Amino acid sequence: MPRVASILLPLPLPEAFDYAEPEGMDLGLGDIVVAPLGPQRLIGVVTGLKEGAGHNRPLKPVLDRLAEPPLPKNTLAFIQWAARYSVDAPGAPLAIALRGARAPRPKPQRLLFATGAAPARATPARARVLEAATGPMSATALAEAAQVSASVLKGLVDEGVLEARLVEPETHFSTPDPDHKHPALNPSQAAAMQVLAGLAEAGGFQAALLDGVTGSGKTEVYLEAVAQVLAQDPAAQVLVLLPEIALTQAVIARFTDRFGAAPAEWHSGITPAQRRRAWEGVVSGEARIVIGARSALFLPFARLRMIVVDEEHDGSYKQEEGFIYQARDLAVVRAKIEGALVVLASATPSLETLWNAEAGRYRWLRLTDRHGIAELPEVSLVDLRETPPERERWLSPPLIKALAETYAKGEQSLLFLNRRGYAPLVLCRACGEKLTAPDTDSWLVEHRYTGRLICHLTGFSMKKPEACPHCGAKDSLASIGPGVERVEEEARELFPEARIAVFSSDTMWDPEAAKAMIVAMEAGEIDILVATQAAAKGHNFPNLTLVGVVDADLGLKGGDLRAAERTFQLLAQAGGRAGRHERPGRVLLQTYAPEHAVMQALAAQDRDAFVAAEMEARQLSGLPPYGRLAAIILSGPDAAALDAFAQGLAAVAPNAEGIEIYGPADAPLALVRGRRRKRFLIRADRKVDLPAFLAAWRARVRVPGSIRMTIDVDPYSF
Ligand code: ADP
To answer: In angstroms, rounded to a whole number, what is the distance separating the alpha carbons of residues 231 and 223?
Structure first.
């Protein structure tokens, strides 16, 4: 009698489907299989096996089983936990976990080698090729490095100066060597590292907060803790999560240097072949160190012993689309399930994490000084009411003076403005219309490099029109407010000789470009860098001594719960880029609200005072971390139908103690891609099982096809 296999598919379905186990396949729990669904062939995971009975219809058979080891039990348990917490189907996180399973395998590559033979005829182009061909390289890479055409390479191959060979791709990961190097930690770093090593040795679930000022050497500390974990357990795997792809290359370089072997890399910027290789390395246990973005948390680790969440406060850990989750919180859960050590590192930890540390749930390790002789920068506030910039200008006289002094000393400056493009708003001076995308309630941002107006929310873009699309007035469109491109323009006018560059996700859309910019900055080839938060985090620029924050008040304007916390973190991090080496740094914050608690705390460098005040405010209102929060977003093309559904949903809300429901109200973005949006906010006491409440509520309605209902537990942008 054939057995019945329950197979969880990577789709947003409420449960696993049953299939027949073909004769001789001998499935086991966790096996990764191919199963038919309608006309599709999907990969899924065996979550149950039973003797076949009770089915009145013949079941479709499982088609195939993948050669890889089964999905580890802990990974499956984690996926199920995450789905329940996010009030979503387990197939959603499973899809993330299986993302590498079916990517194409790396193919052999044709690479060119220099044979050592001298070319019959020497030309400058040929000389450049020989200089660039230091190792095996693809023809494209070599042609680009030497700035020559393909025909030059072909000529050299014909002459036997270069030789082409098919090279098998690297499919394995070398084992990191904990003794490859032994960096000397300073006494406070060594003490923190010892505690982490002790926690790892004790075994079981352990959590620690590595709370150290910018430049205190947190990375150095966790590198050594990783070395200890690898030395303690020869099969241990370690995951290091980073908030930003732009940071991965620098961290990978540090790991490679420390352990003499490159770690596996996992984020949206890697190729399908790299994805396949990393995935196989993780599930087989061969990839011992993985450096990745938030989705790496769902990888099927064979033996995960330690997770580091670097810059744990960073909002990028919150995934807002598709399967919604907060990777920092889930990292703690994953560590619990695996019985592993989790280390949360930051100079400005989130209130949630500080709350847990204060309660003794996390070991709290503090590094209060920068490493070596580097001092924390001096922070001052520039009151824009007293020393305003000129009209239609954004840099105030004190900031311009500081830039001039820094430039004169041959040091670097960073002008920080968390706004991409040239101007955040285009306004018609004739009719007063603010230009928005046709189907979305958000302003179009002017980008001058590309001459386009772009909706940052949906990606809609159009050429900047000559006349106002509303009233038809000519030459009436005014660019209002600054973005990084506009600040760059101003800096160029002020310092025409200086080397100035812009770093934002528009200019740095691919990791290679970002890497090149970081190298140029480190090498001192840029005098003034105008940057969004893409450059404010994590980097180490030795000669950077001035950070000017163009609009310190920017983040405070949004009405959301974390506005003050986030502004504090972002500006403290941006300021933390200054003076990380011998030369002292300074930070100037341009603000219209110097008396605001955030500005005062930044100027006094008194994080603890800020945290205490913010905690008190949260406690008074029962907001996270003192309570829980969730949002339900409803969207649909038809306003009346959406309203009716929202009212109906409100009417069937279960009664529950310790829960307050606000709404339905228009969502802050009430129209996106032609869909109207309504929102409920739900606040709950900590003792309430909020996911269970939300699941019960949702089960009381049938959502019509035209309406989308998204549940966001612990919402970040609302
Ligand atoms: P953080 O992550 O806390 O901002 P990093 O680990 O990046 O700090 O360290 C800041 C700088 O100080 C880096 O250039 C790092 O190489 C250097 N550094 C930190 N600790 C040491 C140490 N013990 N020995 C030598 N250099 C160190």
So the answer is: 12
Return d(Cα 485, Cα 424) in angstroms, integer: 11
Residue with CA closest to ligand 1 atom 5 = 217
CA distance 513 to 193: 34
The CA radius of gyration of the chain, in Å to the nearest whole number, is 28
DSSP E strand stretches across 102-236:
109-114, 162-167, 206-212
What's the gap in Å between 581 CA and the centre of ligand 1? 10
- Bridge partners, residue 242, by sequence: none
Tell me how far apart the alpha carbons of residues 569 and 533 are, in angstroms, rounded to a whole number. 11
Q: What residues are in contact with ligand 1 under a 6 Å CB criterion?
A: 183-186, 189, 212, 214-220, 371, 540
Buried b (16+ CB within 10 A) or exposed e, 313-332: bbbbbbbeeebbbbbbbbbb
The answer to whether 455 is annotated as binding is yes
Write down the ipTM of this complex.
0.97
Is 133 marked within a binding site?
no
CA-closest residue to ligand 1 atom 22: 185
Residues 501, 526 contacting (CB under 8 angstroms)? yes
Joined together, the tokens standing for residue 425 give 């708003």
> Which amino acid appears at position 26 of this protein?
D
- Tell me the pTM: 0.88
Structure confidence by residue, pLDDT tens digits, 296-349: 999 999 999 999 999 999 999 999 889 999 999 999 999 999 999 999 999 999
**DSSP string for 505-573:** TTTT-SHHHHHHHHHHHHTT--SEEEE-HHHHSS---TTEEEEEES-TTGGGSS-STTHHHHHHHHHHH
- Measured by CA distance, the residue closest to atom 18 of ligand 1 is 217
Residue nearest to atom 17 of ligand 1 (CA): 217
